[in-house]
Amino acid sequence: MSNRLSHDNVGHNPSASYLFIEKGAGYVGKRLSLTVIGEEADPEKIKAIRHRNIPTISEEEGKYLVRFHIEGVRGLIGNE
What are the CB-based long-range contacts (under 8 Å, 24+) for 31-36? Predict the structure, then answer.
């Protein structure tokens, strides 16, 4: 996570939501309710877990490894 609005938001409110959409027909996927449980700024740890090395975040901007606990999982439609 870069040092931008999303990082600032979870600093003030540790709750977050994540929408995961699967490929395919219809509305298949999950809505995750999350709570922040920790944060680190160690560049070596961040580099080790990144799946893609996209230079979209400058070193001056700062990077954070934010860990979340999954509080709940629901379907995309209704309360499945």
Answer: 31/73, 31/74, 31/75, 31/76, 32/70, 32/72, 32/73, 33/70, 33/71, 33/72, 33/73, 33/74, 34/68, 34/69, 34/70, 34/71, 35/68, 35/69, 35/71, 36/10, 36/66, 36/67, 36/68
Does the residue 24 lie in any domain?
Answer: yes
Is 80 domain-assigned?
A: no
The residue type of 28 is V
Domain count, the chain: 1
Tens-digit pLDDT profile for the chain (80 aa)? 777 777 888 888 899 999 988 888 877 889 999 999 999 888 888 778 776 666 555 555 678 888 999 999 998 876 55
